[in-house]
User: Fold this.
Amino acid sequence: MSHATRSDRRSFLKSSASMAAAATAAACFPWAQVGFANTLLNDRPRIGCIGLGGMGRGDAHGHRSYGDILALCDVDENQAKKANDDPNIGGGKADLYGDYRKVLERADIDVVSIVTPDHWHVKIAIEALQAGKHVFCQKPLTLTLEENQLIRNACRKYSDRVFFVGTQQRSDQDRFLRAVNLVRKGLLGKITKMTVGIGGGDVGGPFKKSDPPANLDWNMWLGQAPLVDYVEQRCHNNFRWWYEYSGGKFTDWGAHHVDIALWAIDENGEGSGPVEIDGTDAKHPVPFENGYPTKDDSYNSSHDFNVIAKFAGGTEMHITSRGDNGILFEGDKGRFFVNRGKIAGQPIEENWDKDQFGPDQLSELYKGKPFEGHKQNFYRCIADGGLPVSDVYSHVQTMNTCHLAAIAARLNRAIKWDAKAEKITGDDQAAAFFARTPRAGFEIPRV
Assistant:
């Protein structure tokens, strides 16, 4: 794409956003969808989607409201074809790839959507930033504590590109945003305890090893992870139950609920976070030695746990597989519970936040932008600049806590965390989990 074409598109986006800013935040139609509806093809952002499983196709549907999908990529060619056959994604017209680098090489792609297994997120995301793309990446963004630093450094270097994390609870006005505002306004008093219910991981195995199906590039799917024989249950949706590719429920649901909890108590800025994480009460579906599973044919992420994160101010966060999925906030003035289905408790029933939760507070949470749908905020930031509601900087702080919970659980002990230095202290074995050596040929760029 020529520089002039890119400039024209940026001008159009800014114009659309400026007109939309005059509309109310509760408009019936997405600002970007309306703004792009009757424009020429060359005025709409051009999108490449990398990773097209169920979540990837769902995100692709959402992106299509704001731009045109030119490229679809998946190491499973059946998934790429399925997305292209969908009239609401590729419509039979997108170019299909098995190697994401082909998407990043295209000068006519403005935006990439990354919805791969967790262990691929950071490598693709950094290379997308290097290629000049705006990035939407699903959660959990990172696989290790080190990857948090790598992606943060890249986003700082390429700060002219919008990086958006798919933590959609940050755009739930009636439940999670109300909860965050209520706590941040001090209406519960000092927060003493937060119980973050994220459910337990799956238990399964032993599973059979076999040849990978012809439609799947198994070597590419594994990427930076160790080369192992194909097991169907390692792949696609079940990857999250293996520490080789994910952090189990600690990162899967933790990326959502731990994020909301830390946001509410203002412990998601750089240098903040817990000082100790106790993983004594955690069980795994296979035996562990020195923090590693002793079997390679069964799910290995923790399925039963209550990990306690302690903060310098005295607040405790219990990250647990037990009880209801959601967050229970307890302060010295009151308590309430919130999840995707409800927000309940005396502060809610008595409207403690009356006259303290409205457009001004929502805009404050949205970093000065109007409250609107999740992907709308992403495309508005592409047009206007500024950080999105789901920004990378607060998200890596969430992921620090999630990864620390997984490390403590794997070792079944308490570990100390120096939040300012971002180091596990006083425990060399635990500190060794800070990073993982990627398989040769799949190294992550350091920028």
